[in-house]
């Protein structure tokens, strides 16, 4: 099929009905196959993450995540080309984005890069085409049969004569058979109101027709609603007398095939019975389902074939556990399988391609730069033996010293087969050709180099040359061992990623499917040290990304990262903070410029003499910014909140990690500049500070709710940080005064319920009035942005405040739950407001079912990666902290099991817990303290909570109650950094009484393990055994035996035995002059006897008593102190051996 590389120019608005986006031409035939199918359980084995590294619960994690994946049957790849976020399989390493695409007998991976940013004119004028500062795609790689004439089953309609009922100028009938199926400008299009529409093809002579393919609008990035809906392919059984001139007048047309209700981008069908005909008519009875444009027809290509298509379907699986794409397809009758993955640490894309057939197949890999816009030039070359393609961006501001040009390069090699390399620079395509033998496996490796600010405003190279970088990445990869080394790194990274935390909600499969899909997208699109993802992540497949895929600061940008910290993937939120901070120099300039602050509201600024010189040492951000301090949408929309509102990821990273260096280096000064702006901007009357700004885009209000909450949030965090860092002590009282004298969050009454309002008053017709609509009419949950990210309402707010929040959700009816802006917000707000958990889960499930795409992203037709942010709502149902109090399962459903491991809480605590639905009771709570901060936990059990460290030692706790909720008990205890604590349900302690020994602990709960320690034996005695009727010991003869504490007090005795015969005594004789111990003495002169004395009787304290006198009755002591108790034993030895001894005897003269 021929290709088009014609440069496109802007067409007139009259053509807008026929296209919606410019997409590029792939360097080969595009087709699809809808024949047959692969069942959802027909999963490709693929490479699996080995269970050799990571946590002990990897088996559990892999079982949960391994059940969640995306899959596709057929080769339509609908939604791969999109101005927003693709709907096909995705890979990413936070820098490079890979989007799966392709067609019949062809596989394509589209390649984009987070820092491949076009400068444009750097003016920040929204929607200004190539002058926008925006991310661009680089190009891709395409694997297909080598470009030779198709002998097996050629397209017999290619370039044949066509006549149609009508066409729009520039979109004529010849484009229906020109062999170009994926170009937005190459299609037959008609806007004629009269239907049916028809097209007739003249094959030149009667020809056998067995199958056909039709390519519809969504293949080129247009909405699915524009795909041809109802149609038939027809022929004339009797063509006698039929000519090209009268064929359209014939009435005997018969269906050879018909389709109703089609949504597919590519229709690929075998005829039930082959027919022979010269003339073929396409008869379209329903052109589209686009509202108001059902008559508008757009068909990119119609192909006819004399042979049936293979019954081997294309199947693809997005395996999120192993972060790879597994593909099965057929090329030239040979079945192939592919496993494709992207290195997490190097910009290397690997496709392991295996033949499943019995014949060789000649293949080529085309590495191509997108080459359809002269402002973004593409080239190709052969470099170091590799096929290399490049693409560069547009700098239309060369006089601006901050401008740049970015260039990226793709370099490809094939391992395991002999290959030849060629390049077509005009098409920007480098080709690597090889033969894949039957049963053979090869590795196709593509290196991605460049991106970023490659050249400065003078076109001076600032970085390593992109082609050289790509070549250097590719050079060390030479054999399967090198591939295995890359794969081992890939395994390790993704295993660590999934092991960071997990949840298990066995009764909520749809929620769990969304949750892990969102985590995969976050791990793929964000990476510390890389350019932060914009609205649509790092996957850009057209040059016209909606809203320039920028950092939109009125919630969209920061919402992506809402759940990163609580998911214990806090490092992935760092790019958000870096993006916000990169704009600080420009934000300072804008705040200091009176003309800029007048753009918020000129009348307000002009009424304030103190604002005429701008605001020094402050920041002011527009609504849309981009990487490296650029502006994409230079508007304020009457709001000054963008800087303070967007401080959320900075604040949250510190709160969840307690990284003081981060707080001091990055957060503190930013918060201070935010507060400095409002310190000047606020209107102070008496003791009251009043905020004037818009409550939504373009309004003007008194104390607008969201901006007011954002201000309070940065104030409170700044004051706390000032104490932590011991900075600006002299300013704290002033900051606290502002905070204390700001207005409360505004409320109003709507539909009979008190709700949180958009603002206290609004300016209308020259006066302050109550808001006609205190909540948005479209269901946008703006008033509850005071929860997240505003931080002014939470789980431990008063019941009355939380009821107002619940009312605010309820007054919208059901539409707020599915409103397109609300997905990362309303469920979070609801959980923090103690909204019934079953309703929250029910509504999020409904939205997920309605909007989840095959690649597991949530799509409402407008927004992108911000949908990841609803993971925070799910985490918060399991673990929440508010007002310094941590709570497990704060808002969970009675009777439903749930568990989580290693979720993160503010204060740098990592928590695991389980909830047993049968007993409706929390179980197994463990908390690791990373920073050693004191911790207050809401008691998971009504009866109370005990806390133990990792050694089993009980930790002293202080019992309290939650603010505003005195019925809820709390426990507070000190923690040690690195220590893990276990929380257990309070149970009674029982006493352990030990004679001649001790126990640890001395009191224990039923089920505790108690360790005994026998006293040290006297000389010539040894421990014998423990005696007790109360417990069963693990070893009666062990002086350090253990037992499990029963549900009662216990008593035990340690017994000992002599190691020599006992010398029995007759008694003790006390005399005023001496004390005598009487015993049967062997020699009256005392030969062989010795006496040992101790003042305490404890083992080891007895010493030889040299003044003892012996006689026929025993031993006498004459110099003992009257009234002083001592302990004595007597020893008899002979020839150095102990013969016998007495027990220790207590003497009190």
Automatic annotation (TrEMBL):
InterPro entries: 6-hairpin_glycosidase_sf, 6hp_glycosidase-like_sf, Bacterial_rp_domain, FA58C, Galactose-bd-like_sf, GH95_cat, Glyco_hydro_b
GO MF annotations in UniProt: alpha-L-fucosidase activity
Superkingdom of origin: Bacteria
Pfam families assigned to the protein according to its UniProt record, in alphabetical order: F5_F8_type_C (PF00754), Flg_new_2 (PF18998), Glyco_hydro_95_cat (PF22124)
Keywords of the record: Signal
Domain F5/8 type C: 188-307
Biological-process GO terms, alphabetical: carbohydrate metabolic process
Signal peptide as annotated in the record: 1-25
PANTHER family: ALPHA-L-FUCOSIDASE 2 (PTHR31084), GLYCOSYL HYDROLASE FAMILY 95 N-TERMINAL DOMAIN-CONTAINING PROTEIN (PTHR31084:SF19)
Protein name per UniProt: Discoidin domain-containing protein
């Amino acid at each position: 099929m021929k290709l088009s590389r014609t440069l496109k120019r802007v067409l007139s608005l009259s053509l807008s009905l026929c296209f919606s986006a410019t997409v590029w031409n792939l360097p080969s035939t595009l087709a699809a196959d809808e024949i047959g199918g692969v069942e959802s359980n027909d999963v490709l084995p693929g490479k699996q993450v080995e269970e050799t590294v990571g946590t002990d619960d990897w088996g559990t994690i892999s079982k949960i995540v391994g059940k969640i994946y995306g899959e596709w049957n057929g080769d339509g790849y609908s939604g791969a080309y999109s101005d927003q976020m693709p709907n096909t399989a995705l890979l990413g390493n936070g820098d490079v984005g890979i989007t799966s695409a392709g067609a019949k007998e062809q596989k394509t991976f589209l390649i984009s890069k987070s820092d491949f940013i076009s400068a444009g004119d750097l003016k920040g004028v929204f929607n200004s085409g190539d002058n926008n500062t925006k991310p661009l795609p680089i190009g891709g790689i395409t694997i297909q049969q080598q470009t030779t004439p198709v002998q097996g089953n050629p397209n017999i309609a290619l370039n044949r004569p066509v006549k149609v009922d009508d066409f729009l100028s520039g979109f004529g009938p010849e484009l229906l058979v020109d062999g170009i199926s994926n170009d937005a400008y190459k299609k037959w299009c008609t806007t004629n109101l009269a239907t049916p529409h028809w097209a007739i093809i003249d094959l030149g002579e009667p020809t056998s027709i067995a199958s056909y393919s039709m390519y519809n609008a969504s293949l080129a990035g247009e909405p699915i609603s524009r795909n041809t809906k109802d149609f038939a392919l027809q022929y004339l059984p009797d063509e006698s007398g039929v000519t090209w001139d009268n064929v359209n007048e014939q009435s005997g047309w018969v269906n050879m095939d018909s389709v109703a209700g089609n949504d597919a981008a590519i229709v690929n069908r075998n005829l039930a019975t082959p027919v022979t005909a010269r003339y073929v008519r396409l008869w379209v009875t329903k052109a589209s389902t686009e509202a108001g444009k059902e008559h508008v027809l757009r068909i990119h290509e119609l192909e006819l074939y004399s042979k049936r298509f293979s019954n081997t379907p294309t199947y693809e699986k997005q395996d999120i556990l192993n972060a790879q794409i597994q593909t099965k397809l057929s090329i030239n009758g040979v079945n192939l399988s592919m496993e494709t993955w992207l290195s997490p640490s190097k910009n290397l894309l690997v496709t392991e391609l295996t033949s499943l057939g019995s014949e060789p197949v000649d293949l080529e890999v085309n590495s191509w730069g997108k080459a359809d816009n002269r402002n973004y030039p593409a080239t190709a070359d052969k470099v170091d033996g590799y096929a290399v393609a490049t693409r560069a961006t547009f700098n239309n501001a060369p006089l601006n010293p901050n401008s740049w040009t970015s260039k990226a390069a793709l370099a490809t090699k094939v391992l395991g087969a002999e290959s030849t390399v060629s390049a077509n620079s005009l098409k920007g395509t480098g080709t690597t050709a090889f033969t894949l033998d039957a049963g053979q496996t090869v590795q196709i490796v593509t290196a991605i180099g460049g991106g970023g600010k490659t050249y400065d405003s003078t076109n001076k190279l600032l970085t390593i040359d992109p082609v050289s970088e790509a070549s250097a990445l590719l050079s060390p990869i030479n054999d399967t061992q090198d591939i295995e080394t890359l794969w081992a790194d890939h395994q390790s990274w993704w295993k660590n990623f999934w092991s960071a935390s997990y949840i298990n909600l066995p009764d909520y499969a749809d929620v769990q499917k969304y949750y892990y899909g969102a985590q995969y997208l976050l791990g793929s699109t964000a990476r510390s040290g890389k350019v932060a993802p914009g609205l649509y992540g790092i996957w850009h497949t057209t040059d016209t990304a909606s809203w320039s895929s920028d950092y939109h600061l009125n919630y969209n940008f920061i919402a992506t990262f809402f759940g990163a910290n609580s998911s214990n993937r806090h490092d992935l939120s760092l790019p958000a903070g870096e993006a916000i901070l990169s704009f600080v120099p420009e934000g300072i300039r804008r705040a200091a410029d009176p003309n800029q602050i007048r753009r918020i509201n000129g009348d307000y600024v002009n009424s304030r003499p103190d604002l005429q010189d701008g605001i020094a040492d402050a920041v002011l951000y527009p609504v849309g910014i981009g990487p490296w301090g650029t502006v994409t949408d230079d508007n304020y929309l009457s709001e000054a909140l963008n800087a303070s509102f967007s401080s959320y990821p900075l604040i949250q990273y510190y709160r969840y990690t307690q990284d003081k260096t981060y707080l001091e280096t990055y957060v503190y000064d930013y918060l201070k500049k935010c507060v400095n702006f409002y310190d000047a901007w606020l209107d102070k009357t008496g003791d009251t500070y009043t905020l004037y700004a818009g409550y939504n885009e373009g309004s003007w209000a008194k104390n607008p709710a969201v901006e007011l909450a954002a201000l309070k949030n940065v104030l409170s965090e700044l004051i706390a940080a000032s104490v932590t860092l011991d900075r600006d002590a002299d300013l704290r009282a002033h900051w606290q005064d502002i905070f204390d004298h700001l207005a409360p969050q505004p409320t109003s009454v709507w539909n009979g319920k008190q709700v949180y309002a958009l603002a206290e008053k609004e300016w209308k017709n020259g006066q302050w009035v109550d808001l006609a609509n205190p909540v948005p009419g479209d269901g946008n949950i703006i008033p509850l942005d005071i929860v997240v990210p505003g931080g002014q309402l939470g789980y431990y707010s008063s019941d009355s405040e939380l009821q107002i929040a619940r009312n605010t959700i309820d007054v919208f009816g059901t539409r707020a739950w599915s409103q397109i802006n609300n997905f990362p917000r309303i469920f979070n707000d609801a959980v923090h407001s103690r909204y019934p958990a079953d309703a929250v889960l029910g509504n999020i499930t409904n939205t997920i079912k309605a909007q989840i795409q095959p690649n597991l992203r949530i799509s409402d037709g407008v927004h992108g990666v911000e949908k990841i942010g609803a993971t925070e709502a799910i985490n918060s149902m399991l673990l929440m902290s508010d007002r310094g109090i941590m709570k497990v399962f704060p808002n969970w459903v009675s009777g439903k099991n749930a568990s989580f491991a290693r979720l993160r809480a503010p204060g740098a605590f990592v928590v695991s817990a389980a909830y047993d639905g049968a007993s409706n009771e929390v179980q197994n709570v463990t908390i690791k303290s990373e920073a050693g901060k004191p911790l207050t936990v809401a008691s998971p059990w009504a009866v109370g909570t005990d806390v133990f460290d990792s050694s089993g030692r009980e930790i002293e706790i202080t019992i309290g109650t939650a603010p505003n909720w005195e019925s809820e008990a709390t426990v507070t205890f000190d923690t040690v950094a690195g220590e893990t604590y276990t929380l257990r349900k309070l149970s009674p302690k029982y006493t352990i009484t030990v004679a001649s020994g001790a126990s640890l602990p001395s009191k224990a709960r039923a089920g505790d393990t108690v360790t005994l320690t026998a006293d040290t034996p006297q000389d010539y005695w040894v421990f014998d055994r423990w005696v007790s009727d109360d417990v069963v010991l693990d070893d009666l003869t062990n002086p350090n035996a253990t037992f499990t504490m029963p549900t009662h007090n216990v008593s035990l005795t340690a017994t000992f035995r002599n190691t020599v015969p006992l010398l029995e005594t007759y008694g003790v004789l006390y005399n005023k002059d001496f004390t005598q111990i009487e015993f049967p003495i062997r020699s009256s002169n005392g030969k062989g006897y010795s006496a040992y004395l101790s003042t305490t009787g404890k083992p080891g304290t007895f010493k030889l008593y040299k003044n003892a006198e012996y006689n026929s009755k025993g031993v006498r002591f004459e110099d003992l102190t009257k009234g002083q108790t001592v302990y004595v034993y007597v020893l008899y030895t002979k020839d150095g051996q102990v013969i016998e001894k007495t027990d220790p005897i207590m003497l009190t003269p």
